[in-house]
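Subject: mismatched residue count in predicted assembly?

I count 654 residues in my input, but I want to confirm that the predicted structure covers every chain. Input:
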Amino acid sequence: MGERITLSYGDGMRDTYNIIRDVFLSSLSNPSLRELNDSARIGEFVFSCDSFTVKPLFFPDSDIGKLSIYGTVNDICVSAAEPLYLSLAIIVEEGFVIKTLEKIVSSIKIAAKNSGIKVVTGDFKVVEKKKIDGIFISTAGIGKRLKGRSSSFRKIKVGDKVIITGGIAEHGITILLSRNKIFDFDIKSDCQCLNKVLIPLWKKFSSIRFMRDPTRGGLASVLNEISLNTNLGIKIFENNIPLRKDVKAASELLGVDPYYLASEGRAVIVISKEKAKEAIKFLHNNGFRKASIIGTITKQSKVIIKTVSGGERILDFSYSLNLPRIC
Amino acid sequence: MGERITLSYGDGMRDTYNIIRDVFLSSLSNPSLRELNDSARIGEFVFSCDSFTVKPLFFPDSDIGKLSIYGTVNDICVSAAEPLYLSLAIIVEEGFVIKTLEKIVSSIKIAAKNSGIKVVTGDFKVVEKKKIDGIFISTAGIGKRLKGRSSSFRKIKVGDKVIITGGIAEHGITILLSRNKIFDFDIKSDCQCLNKVLIPLWKKFSSIRFMRDPTRGGLASVLNEISLNTNLGIKIFENNIPLRKDVKAASELLGVDPYYLASEGRAVIVISKEKAKEAIKFLHNNGFRKASIIGTITKQSKVIIKTVSGGERILDFSYSLNLPRIC
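Triage response: the counts match. Full output below for your records.
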């Protein structure tokens, strides 16, 4: 670790993982934090939080308001809990246009209604011009745990199957394209709430071991976190990973690897091999038509990708995007 | 309301009250939010959140880390609930010194231990240099409600007594003096956790009607919020308000009214007149030696202060500090 924070500490990959372990866990350690889950389990509830600094504030099919609600809703539901209550802390820059704030609040209202979560408490702060870039939103959420269900690295076994619920990298590439007006693509953020499908999925399948939404750091980071925390490996088949052609083309033009780009409406699911196909059928029937079994948990503790051309390579965790404010 | 956000929208007084009502409540309205309490009641729990943007990050006797824990701990305990769990969302600027971050996390650790709250979940984000001023922290907290106890405007009656638990304006003036190195005062922030005294106080006195910590906007704003939400008035006796001489002198030098300056370790309590003196005795015996009965709830819906010289004036809510980042 260097002397100063660099952008890589916030990109959701190796450096982020390291600073959370070395600065936060080493000092604040307790069993809930150590689990490194998307939310903390407290009795019959889960508790989760997130900050949103995305730039631009508005982008195809979504905005910071919607993102700040669904981000926390999704963290709760991948933790096998029904989203119930949300807190909303907003910090804006002096000079921020009130109509823009109203537009964001209106988007928050719709997202809260859609996902069924209630915004019950809030905070609003203003800082001087140029001391913050526009508006940052922090949300924290409380969910009610589903009986007999949990997401835990410890439940993952060799032979389990890995599922992704839809096309990867669509949110991340949308943000990058919104900042870079040179290229013209018709790609939208995948930002959506997952609870309407994932809660019934949890209820139906008791052999779901683990679930996480691949936000910052993308699919590759979730797979590497699984490997790091289980000492197991994952073999992934590139052929099976849902990746839109235009998302792939845009990634190549911008020089980024889509496996590391954020989704905001997808989940990575680890489930017993016996139930994987049935789970895919359920996901297909409930609107997640691109859901796919992308790989298998293995013994050797690394993430290997079998490429379209038949070769194999390691899907590394040390890659650094240095791209801030994707969410 | 103008077209753009000004600093006054964040100072905890009239403009803040208005924007919360007009932009947030009008759109997100639900019974919990409408209560405008320091936290939301959800079943047997309360839920509260706050953001901290204080500048400077370190100031006499405290820092942004300690403040971000005690701020939420206090919001929970004035709501008649025992602080249990905390979420911690941190946004830092690229280039932020890691040793400074470690110092803040260490302060968070001590504050969490002191107040007995557990940091169970968190988030860490990095934004580009100059897109945020150093570090902003958002915390959200969950507390367990005390049986048969609640803080509510609706419980306040004419004749009830108003108590303040200690000297006012000490945190606010400390921050202003830290920014302005011309004057030399030996004043420290009053930042402290209140739960160790207030929880036993709640348990002992069933006739506590309402409690709030006078942070942004200070004592004057809490009194005015009481008046606005009850349609009752308050008569305050200047003589009885604990205000250190040096705090008063510093306020005069800096041209600010101490009645509007933040405390971060005080509570305003409304209690039945029969029990007020007994409560003061309890507070005195538990370390809050400057706790004082400062006034009475009246019929006429305004806040009147009886000055030291014997005159009377209205303690206005339209005053604007335009001083950002006090907490």
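Chain B has a mean pLDDT of 95. Marking this ticket as 'not a bug'.
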